[in-house]
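Newbie here. two chains, one complex. Structure please?
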Amino acid sequence: MNCAESEILLHALIDGELDAGHSRDVEAHVAVCSACAGKLEAFRAMRAAMAKADLKQPAPARLRSRIEASLPSPSTRVAAPRKFFQLSRRMFFGGFAAGTALSAAIAASLVVTVFRNDHEQTIAGEVVSAHIRSLQPGHLMDVETSDQHTVKPWFDGKLDVAPPVIDLTAQGFTLLGGRLDYIDGEPAAAIVYRHDKHIINLFVARRLGAAHADARTETIQGYNVRYWSEQGLDFWAVSDVEADALDRFGQSIAAALGPRPAS
Amino acid sequence: MTGDAHDEHDRARRFRNAALPHIDDVFTFARHLMRNTADAEDAVQECYLRALHHFDGYRGPAMKPWLLAILRNVCNAEFARRGKQEAPLERDEAGATTEELPMWQEPQASPEAVLLRQQDDATIRRLIDELPQPFREIVVLREVNDLSYHEIAAVAGVPVGTVMSRLARARTMLRAAWNVAQGSTP
């Protein structure tokens, strides 16, 4: 990443709008570029100062009552709608045209896809699809074994990372095996566990849109999804187990990975 | 009670519950766009009128950006009607002394070289008001109205990439003006 890119993206970093991968790129750049590091610090300080100030300006009470009064209410409901518009057209901003470019503004197409919300949503949809696909006969596993020492080397050379493969039998999650999957066009490790009768797919890759160290849980199409970022890897656990069981699963993985580095 | 009247009342109630809680955000944005309290109030009134009128077709996005987008159109239409881009700055006592200073120009020293000091609310608002459009609205939507980049893009009708580059430029201008302001009031 060069300074020109960094000068734009560091704002997205400050605003929490960057995905994990781009955040790491910006952070790597400012670690070696003192000019950009200074800018990041300066803009962070300004943002903090603005957050500390009370910049919102409360609407005057008279404005609030003016608007309240012009809304149809039970006592005026029969005549209100027509009268409301006639009155206000006379009283305020007589020159406003009725048609607006509003829908165009709202529908304005958005081109950048590196941002948190979109990216997370895309990945969330994809991991759930991948989970459902994996439940079709013969799709669940490429390597079928409960031995973590067999699963882990199987991923060698198939991914640019060595995904952690952890035996959680003691915690009630049986390792079934693993497979290579593709999420958002990129290869990802899928590590498969069973809990009671339920299958859990744990997707692991270096950049998989989970920008937060703190785990988040969502329900998508009836499946629970828990995702977090740890030790430079993004994790997505998908299953139809109860959310609290999936939480325990995620916590067990995190515990097995060892303490989170202080930040 | 006729069914129509009941429907109208119910619709107004739903509109009130959904839209009125955002009135401070809408007013704040209006105040920064119009830079004058009386015009801002009229613009907010007109915004709520239009919003009610279009409420039946409203299917999202979130209510706050929807209202802010309407408000922005209201203000732009008013500027167009007046035949000029925007109203001159309304001065309050806090801003009286520095009108002639080009607050937003790039400073001699790089902005990050100066340690930033907290400014009072009125000063920060004045610094924002002195930013030229479209940089002013970007700062208000992000820092005050607390919208995401996607929401800002929808309100301003520009791609997210444009939001990002404008925000970078706007904050650079604001940071420079901030330094000038803290230099002039030691």
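Moderator note: Residues 3-52 of chain A form one domain. The first helix of chain A runs from residue 3 to 14. Thread marked as resolved.
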